[in-house]
Amino acid sequence: MRVFRHLSEAPRGAYPVVAFGAFDGFHLGHRRLLSELCRRSGNAGLVVVDEREVPALRLSSRRRCLEECRTRGVAAALFVRAGDAEPAALIGSLGVRSVIAGAGEAVPTSLRSDGPLQEIPPVVVGGEPITAARLRAAVVVGDLEAAKTMLGAPYPVEGRVVHGFHRGSTIGVPTANLRVRGWQLPPDGVYAVTASTGGFVGSGVANLGTNPTFGGGVRSLETNIFDFDRDLYGARLAVGFVARLRGERKFENVDELVSQIRRDITDARLIHARHG
To answer: pLDDT-based confidence at 27, cuts 50/70/90?
Structure first.
């Protein structure tokens, strides 16, 4: 799949059908849109990702967007940023025959009035269309089941594993730590999670928060991956939120904390067994 960082890089006439959208969160509606793009274009479609108004807290990464596009056979992706041409002018300069977008998504007025726009019916869950706003609202309040239904998988947060204070190793529960600045997150607490990196897919338990037992600090996501002992420092890790076990709390001492972590691990394993 080709990736264009600027309009000037995209050849005119090469992509007759374009899918347009912000692709924030990459939910089931986005997947339907890409499937329709490939069907209409014969796998010669272009995804135009509108990044002109990027949310302060993102629901998914650009990397995930590209992976989803590659997986579904999209030919190319073009990222539109602040200061770039208006969408209708952009589409016109590419010689596009057809533009498709999800019904109900935020599509610029210029594209609606001047472009050859066709809206694809949304995916409906619980009587309501799936939208990025609806997904965001579910994540904010910690409604992980609703988020999973809209995504088709547990809500993921991803990034590179960084060095923390190595407290987990000293108490026999090593963790992979992610800095989570810039991500839309569920409420702080302890979660049963999935974990994937470099072809490995497993399960675990994670603490999201500031570690108040040790005086608090930077908000982070610390994941203990079950039955896994590889060094992950510097590796990219995706952590999917399956279920919330409890809220984050301050313990009187380390022994009390360790006892609770052991119970959390047991509870998380039971949840994973039920979820398969």
So the answer is: very high
Tokens of 172: 């026999």
CATH of domain 154-275: 2.40.30.30
Give domain 2-129's CATH superfamily. HUPs (3.40.50.620)
Q: Whole-angstrom Cα distance, residue 237 to residue 157?
A: 8
First-to-final CA distance of the chain: 33
Sequence ranges of the domains in the chain: 2-129, 154-275
Average pLDDT estimate for 96-123: 76
Q: What are phi and psi of 174, to 5 degrees?
A: -65, 145
252: how many CB neighbours lie within 10 A of its CB? Answer: 8
Q: Which two tokens stand for residue 166?
A: 């190595």
Q: Which has the closest alpha carbon to 99: 81, 86, 114? A: 114
Q: Hey, how many other C-beta atoms are within 10 angstroms of the C-beta on 70? A: 12
pTM passes above 0.85:
yes
Residue type (1 letter), 242: V
Q: What is the pLDDT of residue 194?
A: 96
